[in-house]
Amino acid sequence: MKIVFAGTPEFAVPTLQTLIDSPHEVVAAYTQPDRPAGRGRKLTASPVKDLALTAGIPVAQPENFKAAEAVQALADLQPELMVVVAYGLILPQAVLDIPKFGCINVHGSLLPRWRGAAPIHRAVMAGDSKTGVTIMKVVKKLDAGDMLYKIEYPIGAQATSGELHDRLAELGAEALLKVVDMIETGTLQAETQDESLVTYAHKLEKQEAVLDWRESAVELDRKIRGLNAWPVAQTTCNGQVLRVWRSEVLNRPAAAAPGTIDSSAQTLDVATGAGMLRLLEVQLPGGKRINGKDFLNAHPAAGVVLGS
Hints:
Blueprint: E1 2-7, H1 13-21, E2 25-30, E3 35-37, E4 42-44, H2 47-54, E5 59-60, H3 68-76, E6 81-85, H4 93-96, E7 103-107, E8 115-116, H5 119-125, E9 130-137, E10 147-154, H6 161-185, E11 200-201, H7 217-226, E12 233-237, E13 240-250, E14 261-262, E15 269-271, E16 276-283, E17 290-291, H8 292-298
Parallel strand pairs: 1-2, 1-6, 2-5, 6-7, 8-11
Antiparallel strand pairs: 3-4, 7-9, 9-10, 12-13, 13-16, 14-15, 15-16, 16-17
């Protein structure tokens, strides 16, 4: 099958690699234009562009599809299918109508739960017990197309968004290939989304990273895991920003004001609005990620109130 691939970040790479390794023909890879990145703000190609060029696949990087020339260039490729994975552009109907079998998308949630920009993070932060990937048909309304295939995946008690991201990217590639095969054999069964079950995964904002110690230990732990690997939960400690990478909910009540450190057991335990939270891995500006004990050895903090 002649396929046009559209994707940008690391999440899209396993799916593109799977298609490259399959009997299908990837005739072009569409991706976001190169953007400034890093300390030097050097123009940087997307991970999808890097892979496509390595594989010898033509790359297209239109800013959008408002110009008729951009739409015609896609039509000239005569794709039978367009596969979209975290592309970052809204596709107009003129584009959706080009491929013979339409456009399909790999989404990192079990739709209709968590439509939108940050489905993996929101699932962890909400305390969901499972997540997964859904292959759906792309329609004009955001993430509202018919569901074509799903794979569920459990969210473990210590799972972070970063870890789930990598696993779901692999599962998405696996699911996508099955759907392409079902399209070819005419065995695909589409399922309409139940609008009454829709939730939205709004884009993450940096200010969400600030921990509010008045929340419960359970809520804070979910937040810390949900914001790992980006933007990473943070608080302040003696006037410095302290990033919190990993934590553990303790089975004991808090006996001090929220944010107060209890280091009596040589562990970095913090009182919250409900229960105690142990900070397992933290990081100060310019420093390495270290465990709670090493942090206390270098920064005696008994009685310090975080976030104050």
